[in-house]
Amino acid sequence: MNVKNLYEPNEEITVQSYFNKFGIKDIKEYINPTGKYIDNPFLYKNMIEAVKEIKYWKQQNEVTIYIVHDSDVDGLCSAIIVYDYLFNLIPNAYIKVLLHDGKERGLDDDKILKQIIKDKPDLVIIPDAGTNNKKQAKKLSDTGIGLIVLDHHDFDEDCNETGILVNNQNKESNVQRCGSGTLVVHKFLQALDGEFNFNWNKKYIDLVALSLISDSMDMSSMENRIYYCYGLEKINNITNKFLKLLINKFIGDKPYTQRDISFKIVPKLNAVIRSDNQENKQRVFLAFLEMDDLEEVCKICEDAHKEQIKICEEQININQDKYNLDDNVVFLVTQTLPRSYSGLIAGKLMSKAGKKPAIVGKVKNGIMIGSIRSPIDIKQQLEDSNLVEWVKGHGGTAAGISIKQENIEPLIKYFNNMELDYNTTDSVLKTYKIKDVPEKLFEIFYGMDYLWSSNGILQPLFCLTDIVFNTSSINVLGSNKRTLKVHIEGVDIIIFNVTKEDKVNFGLGRIENDEFIEDKKDIDLKMDCIGSLGINIWRNKKTDQIIVDKYEIEKYNKKSKTNYFNKRRN
């Protein structure tokens, strides 16, 4: 396995040393925050001007405010909290929320821009988008429409010349830069609280925390940690009834982790937000405001996610003649692509291609707009090709892309003439054989699962090598028979969510006509794996265990012994 050990062989593993490796100095404060590292909202450039703008409109007899809702969970949360706050702050305001049809952002959506210019509201607020809408912002200004942008995206062009831009990426603001769009909006609400002597902002901390997880913000940030701790870490911290229902419904009445939120809550909300069903989008928005039937909307989210999975799988299947899994970068360009699904389909195509980069898109007016999903960052190679219009997003692993239709085939050839190493390196604390793992390492991080994040302090993983066992020692567990357990040298090795292919790898059967046929073979296997160490306590009995995250397995042939005459014995 391709691993990088974070610790030297003789370096001691401690909680403090592990947190230090992620830049955490005040470990006690990180684990149990007191609110010590919260930025003052007025450290944000232009915050005073944004507050003055709201104060002015509060003093008027009437005002029309439009809020542009960005098409993801961060956009949802940020639109909800600014809407709800202003609804209560300015009772005489008419506030309207504008929803994108697809994945358009801010005022890049011509349909929304035209509607705003036609309706001429007094003020437009764009949360979680809008920073780079300089030309569109000028059009609003020329029409006499006020603009406040509350965002966290990088600058290409500053829209501040014709509007008020509050953005944590502004180098003139001495604030933490890894907050979500919703966190920036919450800072705005904190500033309004300070201006009007309210304390309303605390109502929305749970939605800020949800946005941080959904938008993959750096959770090693002290401020982000505080928001998550007070907003979402425990079910009793949550004030929003709909969010609490989602967690109870899809995670259950048990302690949960940031990973649970990422995989069990966020996709269901995104499935609705990124669909073309405007009514369902509105109902989700209203459910968070407790203005709809929460149980019904919960079911809408569940059904939308199931439908999304089905559609993505169908697109992969019906377009098999349009992509080549042998290409170094797999392209799928299809006019059947549903709006807003390119990233999801690219992720599935990447997996189908054996973890090769995938680009999926749809052509309109000679330009393909789509998404990249890749195990490695290919942004530099794309830009060096001079064949793409732009690449925007999280580097070149999860991003949007624009390519002229005439350049698609040359780009495929460009990558096919290049040697790409798709192998990623997994960071582990140390590499051991099971018998050499110090006992204390099974307990050192016990009970700290709530702290681990895919983008922050990573779950502590170890590499275990040369694990030899017979198929007879494998137990298949669970009602759906998707958990494997092997007990070796006093340690339970657990693999969750196993597939049919996994069971074949472990010698448990074969696949016929896409169905798994149980047929356990009596063979010896050797496995290397990456996993977390922990303990399981059941009826006062404690068992060390390894929860496997990734594995490599092969048939094990016992090494033959050589006699003194250098001849191999049978």
- Low-confidence runs of at least 5 consecutive residues: 560-570
Mean pLDDT equals: 92
How many distinct helices? 17
CATH topology-level name of the largest domain? inorganic pyrophosphatase (n-terminal core)
**CATH architecture assignment name of the largest domain:** Alpha-Beta Complex
Largest sheet: number of strands, sense, barrel closure: 7 strands, mixed
Structural class: alpha/beta
* Beta-strand segment tally: 21
What share of the residues does DSSP label as strand, in percent? 15-25%
For the largest sheet, list the strands in their spatial order.
Answer: 13-14-20-21-17-16-15
What is the CA-based Rg, rounded?
A: 26 Å
Intertermini distance = 31 Å
Kindly provide the name of the CATH class of the largest domain. Alpha Beta
Number of domains as seen in the coordinates: 3
Give the overall shape: globular
> What level of helicity do the residues show?
25-40%
